[in-house]
């Protein structure tokens, strides 16, 4: 059944995905510009690295089925907001929220929803800040607003998430053994500790720099 749905989407929906690809071009360029500006002004940018991705058709169909969404372009447009995805990785936790503030005050991005899995991690131990946004895309004869999801997290959170994803991949469909789940939560806590200590060290160094500059 899933394969049928995937084939149906692939065959009839090519044009449907174009605005999402445009949104990714837009967001990628927005953040590259900010990165360059911050580096040139302050010698430092909160963006460590960034990746964009289009949701795979298979993952889209899986979400449509799980959420029992009607297979029409209109309902998918409304219900699924992460077809276009940007992931920004920062060195420090403060930079995650600095970027959020920056996004909030941009006129070409509308904040729709904030899912703060740093303040409230997922049961798995997953931590990240997810921003559901709409980004402005200027076409030849009109301006459109396209949904996208921006995930912002520290290198430590990103390391945990990508490694956990790889470990879980082996258990497709089934859940990972309970003992391993517990260990993953402990490792997630360890990653938070690393973030806290790095932030502390950064503050110490910044304050000693201010002291020595008078
Ligand atoms: P992909 O790349 O899309 O195939 P919602 O959109 O709010 O209705 P959803 O989709 O559960 O519901 O949103 P959520 O939880 O905000 O974001 C899902 C995405 O977060 C996942 O994408 C992962 O990228 C990431 N994520 C969430 N929980 C975990 C976790 O426990 N471990 C890891 N490694 N990543 C997680 P997709 O949809 O799975 O992938």
Helix content: 40-55%
Mean pLDDT: 93
**CATH class, please?**
Alpha Beta
Strand content: 15-25%
**Count of beta strands:** 5
- Order of SSEs: HHEHHEHEEEHH
Instruction: Name the bound molecules.
Output: ligand 0O2
Shape: flat
Output the radius of gyration.
20 Å
CATH homology-level superfamily? Beta Polymerase, domain 2
In spatial order, strands of the major sheet run 1-2-5-4-3
Structure overview:
- This is GTP pyrophosphokinase family protein.
- Pathway: Purine metabolism; ppGpp biosynthesis; ppGpp from GTP: step 1/2.
- Keywords: Kinase, Transferase.
- GO terms for molecular function: kinase activity.
- With 214 residues, this protein is of the alpha+beta class.
- The chain has a single domain, classed as Beta Polymerase, domain 2.
- The protein has seven helices and five strands.
- It has a five-stranded mixed β-sheet.
- The chain starts with a helix and ends with a helix.
- Bound molecules: ligand 0O2.
- Ligand 0O2 binds next to helix 6.
Describe this protein with a few key phrases:
54% helix, binds ligand 0O2, 20% strand, alpha+beta, 214 residues, five-stranded mixed β-sheet, single chain, Beta Polymerase, domain 2
SSE blueprint and pairings:
Layout: H1 2-12, H2 18-42, E1 49-54, H3 57-66, H4 73-79, E2 84-90, H5 93-104, E3 109-116, E4 129-138, E5 143-154, H6 155-169, H7 178-212
Parallel strand pairs: 2-5
Antiparallel strand pairs: 1-2, 3-4, 4-5
Helix pairs in contact: 1-3, 6-7
What can be said about this structure in brief?
The chain is an alpha+beta fold and 214 residues long. The protein contains seven helices and five strands, in the order H-H-E-H-H-E-H-E-E-E-H-H.
